[in-house]
Write a structure and sequence with these properties.
The protein has two domains: 128 residues, Response regulator (Rossmann fold), CATH 3.40.50.2300; 160 residues, 2-Layer Sandwich (Alpha-Beta Plaits), CATH 3.30.70. The chain is α/β, with parallel strands linked by helices.
Length: 301
């Protein structure tokens, strides 16, 4: 994803200076020249970070920062204050208002670049951590929601299908009720470990819900996806027979669909419906979705 910097300052020459100093950095710089414009741009642009002048007419930087941090849409955007005032009390006020860093004008180009890079790295790490499921170590639902459109767009551009596998641990609620959170959490971790070992690096694996994991298999139609699903189902059955010395005999139900028969909007829902059909088949099964017309015919019959 591209990194964008919103520069907020009432000095046009400073905008030209900062753009020149950040030209070699992998960022796209956008400009706002007063506080109200900054608030509007931050909401519409959702920049990766903001360089914010303190000394502006009407709304000063402190007030702009306060409003940004009080808005859930912009609260997580890191802010570096730019100011000609080097007083410690103002720096403390800036940090107290939520700023990530503080650069005093006139600043050296290498200092500005270093602080921007450090702030962007910290933001990237924070975003990455926020999108990892703590129990399984897989990407979480938020990550899937963010990247699914990109995966679908790639499939369209390359004219290659994308398979969606929905994996559900059979009788997970009963497992948790019978053996407690320790065993159920270890089951989730084991499912994640097996899925990661059996899938390619380019495939996207996310924890979808408490008992479900979703896998997007690039360049695979549902026939190829079903082969991946059968391999996973077999490994789950084999490796989850015993967990931490407790004989469980865990199995999984897996639904498979691809972009050849499901619209972008319906892909995940069709995979979820296929899981339900796999459960109806007795669990520990793979069900491959059919074209909608065929499924309607079967339902009527």
């Amino acid at each position: 994803m591209s990194q964008t910097v919103l520069l907020v300052d009432d000095s046009i020459p400073l905008h030209k200076l900062v753009r020149a100093q950040l030209e070699a950095e992998p960022v796209e710089v956008h400009s706002a020249y007063d506080g109200e414009a900054a608030l509007s741009a931050a909401v519409s642009l959702r920049p990766t970070m903001i360089l914010l002048d303190v000394d502006m007419p009407e709304l000063d930087g402190f007030e702009v920062c306060r409003r940004l941090k009080s808005n859930p849409v912009t609260a997580a955007i890191p802010i570096i204050f730019l100011t000609a005032n080097s007083l410690i009390c103002d720096k403390v006020r800036g940090f107290d208002s939520g700023a990530a860093d503080y650069v005093t004008k006139p600043f050296k180009p290498e200092e500005l670049r270093a602080r921007v890079r450090a702030t962007l790295r910290a933001k990237h790490q924070l975003d990455k951590t926020a999108m990892v499921d703590a129990q399984s170590g897989l990407w979480n639902r938020s990550y899937l929601d963010l990247h699914l459109k990109a995966q679908l767009s790639l499939a369209r551009r390359t004219n290659r299908p994308l398979s969606c596998l929905m994996i559900e641990i059979d009788r997970f609620a009963m497992l948790a009720a019978t053996h407690g959170p320790s065993i159920s959490q270890e089951a989730i971790r084991s499912i994640a470990r097996i899925a990661l070992s059996q899938c390619r690096a380019e495939d996207l694996i996310c924890r979808y819900s408490e008992s479900k994991v979703i896998v997007l298999v690039n360049g695979a139609n549902r026939a190829a996806g079903s082969r991946v699903a059968e391999r996973l189902r077999g490994e789950f059955e084999r490796q989850l027979a015993v967990i931490d010395g407790v004989k469980l005999g865990l199995t999984s139900s897996i639904g498979v669909v691809d972009t050849l028969i499901a619209s972008d909007e319906a892909l995940v829902d069709r995979a979820d419906a296929a899981v339900s059909r796999a459960r109806q088949c007795g669990r520990n099964a793979v069900f491959v979705a059919r074209p909608a017309a065929d499924e309607a015919h079967i339902a009527v019959a």
